[in-house]
Design goal:
The complex is a heterodimer of chains A (about 110) and B (about 120). With about 110 residues, chain A is an all-beta fold. Helix content of chain A is about 0%, strand content about 50%. Chain A has strands at about 5, 10-15, 20, 25, 30-40, 45-50, 60-65, 70-75, 85-90, 100, 105-109. Chain B contains no helices and eleven strands. Classes of the chains: A mainly beta (about 110), B mainly beta (about 120).
């Protein structure tokens, strides 16, 4: 069975500081990894997926299969980045998403 | 931009009653999903649906739950006899192709309160 762990429930950083949201997973096969974000009073939305290797809103995430991690990083946090961030995993052949418990990021002015 | 919609936004029901939660997926999407999030806990997968049948379901999705696409636009989740522990936020999602990499678009959720 797959599992996603986000060790930090809450994370606060100052505007302009680097931010890293941690995500570790366990899955025996080759998973697809995602970061979803939920801004205040908005719906869950996809931020990025590992296969795309893209930077969205300045965020990047690298899949490290050796450490089974998919940490989300941004070099300079902005106040509008304050939100709940969920790491999620999908087994390659299936469609269900397994979510982590989420990290509430607060970027302080 | 098309969005997934859900109604109602908040439903209060008494234990033992049946509830139907409604979702309108994005019109050209083929795969539909229900997830739930009990307060303070993770978002959990319940069921996926494709071509008018269940594609996958989790252990949570027992005989008390059913899903249906009654017409060309709605996708419903029915809980036959609600329990207190069914109180949660229920999210509907849809995706275009249903492959592992496919983005799932989420609705705003229905908060179900069972008293």
């Amino acid at each position: 069975a797959q599992r996603v762990t986000q060790p930090e429930k809450l994370l606060s950083v100052f505007k302009g500081a680097p931010v890293e949201l941690k995500c570790n997973y366990s899955y025996s096969g080759s998973p697809e990894l995602f970061w979803y974000v939920q801004y205040s009073r908005q719906r869950l939305q996809l931020l990025l997926r590992h296969i795309s290797r893209e930077s969205i809103k300045g965020f990047t995430a690298d899949l490290n299969k050796g450490e089974t991690s998919f940490h989300l990083k941004k070099p300079f946090a902005q106040e509008e980045d304050s939100a709940m961030y969920y790491c999620a995993l999908s087994p390659g052949s299936a469609r269900q998403l397994t979510f982590g418990s989420g990290t509430q990021l607060t970027v302080l002015p | 931009e098309p969005e997934v919609t859900q109604t109602p936004s908040h439903q209060v029901t008494q234990m033992g009653q049946e509830v139907i939660l409604r979702c309108v997926p994005i019109s050209n999407h083929l795969y539909f999903y229900w997830y739930r999030q009990i307060l303070g806990q993770k978002v959990e997968f319940l069921v996926s649906f494709y071509n008018n049948e269940i594609s996958e379901k989790s252990e949570i999705f027992d005989d008390q739950f059913s899903v249906e696409r009654p017409d060309g636009s709605n996708f419903t989740l029915k809980i036959r006899s609600t329990k207190l522990e069914d109180s949660a936020m229920y999210f509907c999602a849809s995706s275009e192709y249903g492959q592992g990499l496919d983005e799932q678009y989420f609705g705003p959720g229905t908060r179900l309160t069972v008293t």
